[in-house]
Design goal:
The chain has a 7-stranded mixed β-sheet with strand order 1-9-8-5-4-2-3, sandwiched between helices. α2 runs parallel beside α8, α3 crosses α4 and α5 (92-101) packs parallel to α6 (120-127). It has one domain: 3-Layer(aba) Sandwich (Aspartate Aminotransferase, domain 2), CATH 3.40.640.10. It is of the alpha/beta class. It has 9 helices and 9 strands. The chain starts with a helix and ends in a 36-residue tail after the last helix. Bound molecules: pyridoxal-5'-phosphate.
Length: 291
């Protein structure tokens, strides 16, 4: 951070570019796009995939508000689909039923709840043969793994949060990773006022400094160099942080031996420790399921 302050480059610049590259190497992703929140990453991913008012988008019925609100930003309709009660992640069977009932569904936002990887193979099978994309809400999931691969390594769009409660913190921040060069390019344009030039390229561009076109009505979602400087240091310490969380989780497990949390697949990096507790509704409480 001191280095950034001394350099005078405070907003999006070389540190953001370095953080994007380091993050992509860490998770094994092709194209990283750093932004200022996970919500921004999800919004940009949906926008880049062309989601609009005629579309419906599925998300998990057990999540934070951001996974649903980003669908509304684009005028699309959120469709809430049930979770698997053990994993607390989107149920592929319930998704298949929703797809059969609603031909407007064009995207699905599965949430890797508290670091538990979703059953991505099952979800991919459910959408197979349809014009539907999977935009992963990986706010809790750095560095969770599935089939030996980190979450974010292979995705239509995978969205991480670097908010203070997350496993990597830049104060506020987020990252979109994608396999698609076109989706990354659109998200890069849309994260900063629809400017067609890569702002980071201004440093070494042949084009006159600050020459650009604004090609679309857009957003202000860029990450700053100060945030990226924190991110670079936090990223280097991920393995140490994982080790600390594993030790704390092992202690919880020994003290709460009657309610263990053992994910049936994938490596879970314990962003939070969640166990389902079934409570009876208080007398007179509204029945939300009937609404
Ligand atoms: C599941 C989930 N998705 C998205 C978000 C939004 O993250 P951000 O605050 O970086 O937009 C959160 C934040 O806590 C979250 O828990």
């Amino acid at each position: 951070m001191c280095d950034s302050i001394r350099s005078g480059w405070l907003t999006s610049g070389p540190k953001v570019r370095a953080f994007e590259q380091a993050f992509a190497n860490y998770v094994g992703a092709n194209f990283p796009v750093a932004v200022n929140s996970c919500a921004a990453a999800m919004h940009l991913a949906l926008e880049a995939h062309g989601i609009g008012p005629k579309d419906a988008v599925v998300t998990s019925d057990y999540t934070f508000t951001a996974s649903a609100e980003v669908i509304r930003y684009l005028g699309a309709t959120p469709v809430f689909v049930d979770i698997n009660p053990v994993m607390l992640t989107l149920s592929p069977a319930a998704l298949a039923r929703a797809l059969a009932e609603n031909p407007r569904i064009r995207a699905v936002i599965p949430v890797h709840t508290a670091g538990h990887p979703c059953d991505m193979a099952g979800l991919r099978e459910a959408i197979a043969g349809r014009d539907v994309v999977l935009i992963e809400d990986a706010a809790h999931s750095l560095p969770s793994e599935l089939s030996g691969q980190r979450i974010g390594a292979a995705s239509d769009g995978c969205c991480f949060s670097f908010y203070v409660t997350k496993t990597l913190c830049t104060e506020e921040g987020g990252m979109l990773t994608t396999d698609s060069v076109e989706i990354a390019a659109r998200a890069r344009t849309m994260r900063l006022h629809g400017i067609d030039a890569d702002v980071f390229a201004w440093e070494d561009s042949e084009r006159p400094l600050r020459y650009y076109e604004v090609v679309a009505p857009d957003f202000k979602y860029n990450m700053t160099d100060l945030a990226a400087a924190i991110g670079l240091h936090q990223l280097r310490r991920q393995d140490e942080f994982c080790e600390l969380r594993s030790r704390t989780a092992a202690r919880y497990d020994s003290l709460l031996a009657n309610c263990p949390v053992t994910p049936p697949h994938g490596k879970h990096w314990l962003q939070a420790r969640v166990a389902p507790v079934h409570l009876a509704a208080p007398a007179g409480a509204p029945n939300l399921r009937s609404r």
